[in-house]
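Q: Can I see a sequence and its folded structure?
A: Here is a first one.
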Amino acid sequence: MSSRVVRAENLLWFAPILFGLLANYAAYSEKVLLFVDNEVYIFSFSNIITICVTIVAIPFIMHSVLRDLDLRNFFSSWAHIFFTCLLTTIILLIFTYTQPINLKWIYHAGELPAYKKWMYYNTMALGVLQLLIYVQAFYLIYGISVLIRHRHTKKVQEKEHYDYMINQLDRA
């Protein structure tokens, strides 16, 4: 296998696909209900896998760019990969073990225990999804700052080289 195939950043897209497929077979329901801002959204597990892979697509590219330029920090890269895989797994586990509910329960006058439990898991899943997006944004900001510092260092080196060459030409 080539070194491009066996890279740690491949876990960013492999983990959501693997755990998403496992969650699809282990879940109580084929559909996932998500309640956000008084609206109910219905997703399949393949939609959730697509959302998770889409969220990590740009950080995946950032990993590849930093590795190709040999600017990759081992700790920050592995921390990002670990927390991304952990958060996507948690999201999929929450949706796997959440019992399906009747949509009419949302508008029920009293507190139903099954609805209260489902709403707790819904809130937890939304919080973990927000945390996943924040982790990706933080890594992107980190990667862009590394690239900017690298570009600045290269510009300074080029300027020093050209100044040296001009000084050598002036002496001759």
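Q: Show me another, different protein.
A: A second, unrelated one:
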Amino acid sequence: MATLVHCLRLSTKFALRGFHCSVVCPARGNRTPRLPVEFIENRKHEQIAVGAPVTAPIDECEAPVIELSKEEVIREIESKKEQQLLSQEANEGLPPFQRLTDADKTLSVAMQKTMNIKSSKTNKKFIAVEGRRLIEDAIHAGIKFESIFFSQKDTIRGIQLPESSLTRCYKVPYSNLKIWSTLTTCPGITGIFSQPKSQMLKSLKPGEDRSEDILPLNLVCDQVRDPGNMGAILRVAAAVGCNQVITTKGCVNIWDPKVVRASMGSVFRVPVIQQPSWDELGTLITSENASLYLADHREFLAKGPRDYTDVSFSVASGPIVLVVGGETHGLSARATDIAKATRIRIPLACGVESLNVGTAVAVLVYEIRRQISHSAV
């Protein structure tokens, strides 16, 4: 009993100094109960009344109140304003964006959609475009924008994104973007776009709304399966001013990320029609009085090909159709079956058997452009 009384006196003594104190009772082997709250509060008011210093808060969960001088308050307000200004300058020219953590699945879900993994809610197809320049080309071409992922603010600063409720911008760790990148060095920015629907093959003649620089030239890709070659062809076709590019069955998808990258954005600058039938193409050639040329270097056929420099492309009364094949498979049987086709070749020296299809297309289409331009003078 004496021990318990002694413990209570100790607790009272420390409480009067502004501390909560729990003292172990040797007799009972546990802690004594805390003093009543009313008692502690009364002692606190008494201390304040007599001006006694309070060395610690009465409530353990209550933080001590720190009084600031007027000058300190002013400095604190100015510091917060300066931080706000710095934050505004850092975000100037940036669209509203959301920060994602390493564990967030938003990026992986978006990239899976570009791999033709169909969602249960929609059958839309999407394409992934890496790099700021290609993203800007896609936006300028009017491709429907879905979302954008970037790792550094400077990579997205100043990009004129379309004003749409569907536009979503996310700042993600660079390591996450690198996982999904198809490039050796990840550019740190990837845009997700809705894949444009393939146009229908309606005519081989340039429309009246097309620029004067557009040639009456339709380039047909037959069994071109390499993404790098297809991208190079699209780049040349856009540069020379082809009316349209037609890809037949067996060609690589023009929206493959490697094709988009190899075309340097030209896939957004030239009309491309994918996988029309050869019967449809043959009907248009006949009905529109088109001139058909097959890029074919095979000498063993009965009628050998003519050198492209010996052909007068400018005398064609209708549109021109040039068919090129892949380096490995060449022209298909359906292409060679079309009647009234002129087979042309590029002369080669030093035992070189063939040219890269992108290079061959560049040689042929610029010769066609040269002849047409000279005839128009």
